[in-house]
Design brief:
Distance between the termini: 19 Å
CATH superfamily of the largest domain: Response regulator
CATH class of the largest domain: Alpha Beta
Helix content: 40-55%
CATH architecture of the largest domain: 3-Layer(aba) Sandwich
Number of helices: 8
Oligomer: single chain
Radius of gyration: 20 Å
Shape: elongated
Strand order of the largest sheet: 2-1-3-4-5
Strand content: 15-25%
Number of domains: 2
């Protein structure tokens, strides 16, 4: 069963307010922001399923926001326009929009189209793209790379792989031989000392981010990433 989808609506015009109102309570967690910059910040730190943005925004417009989000990947984008007869619809689809809603639009249609889009693009087993542990936040890309939001934090490829593996099953113990085998699928044979070093460094990184004890080394040799 799908968890509640996270939707971020961007815009301060009447159309954006109408969309947010239509989606509220539709088994969706809906929040609003007024600028593209706010949306990009939220997408960087949270696991949004859908961004609904007005084509016309102050600063970076909704078309460019759509393009940037689709380049980042991992989120569906709907562009809304209250200016029929303009190039907004064609520009939005050219930028990669998954759907375009021309306002005014009946609330029932907005809800139906949004739910259908979330079902198509999300799926029940889609891995979460944001890893958040204490104040540590990282994005997980389609190729398996894990990039911390804090530019001062750097993880080696092996550390990224180990963190992604542990984050797949938070709260569950993962045996060291399982970690070694899964890591070897991406990096070739990993010497035990190198794997131990990666785990020790991840422990330090999380401790420094205020998540002391989040990565636990158990007496039987297994490792566990505490559930959020």
């Amino acid at each position: 069963m799908l968890t509640v989808a996270e939707v971020f609506v961007v815009g301060s015009d009447w159309a954006s307010r109408a969309v947010a109102g239509a989606l509220a309570g539709a088994e969706l967690a809906v929040e609003r922001g007024e600028t593209a910059e706010v949306a990009l910040y939220e997408h960087g730190r949270r696991d949004l399923d859908l961004v609904v943005c007005a084509a016309r925004l102050p600063g970076m417009d909704g078309i460019e926001l759509c393009r940037v989000l689709k380049d980042r990947g991992g989120v569906a984008v709907v562009v809304t326009t209250a200016a029929p007869g303009t190039s907004d619809v064609l520009d939005a689809f050219a930028a990669g929009a998954d759907d375009v809603i021309v306002m005014p639009c009946h609330p029932d249609e907005i809800r139906a189209r949004t739910r259908a889009l979330v079902r198509r693009t999300r799926g029940p087993l889609r891995p979460r793209r944001t890893i958040r542990i204490g104040h540590f936040v990282a994005r997980r890309d389609d190729d398996g790379a894990v990039t911390p939001i804090d530019a001062d934090v750097h993880l080696s490829p092996l550390e990224q792989t180990v963190l992604a593996l542990l984050a797949e099953r938070p709260g569950c113990v993962v045996a060291i031989d399982v970690l070694a085998r899964r890591a070897a699928e991406r990096h070739g044979a990993v010497p035990p000392a190198l794997l131990d070093h990666a785990l020790d460094r991840l422990t330090t990184v999380l401790d420094d981010a205020g998540a002391t004890g989040a990565l636990q080394h158990l007496p039987d040799g297994g490792w566990r990433l505490a559930a959020a």
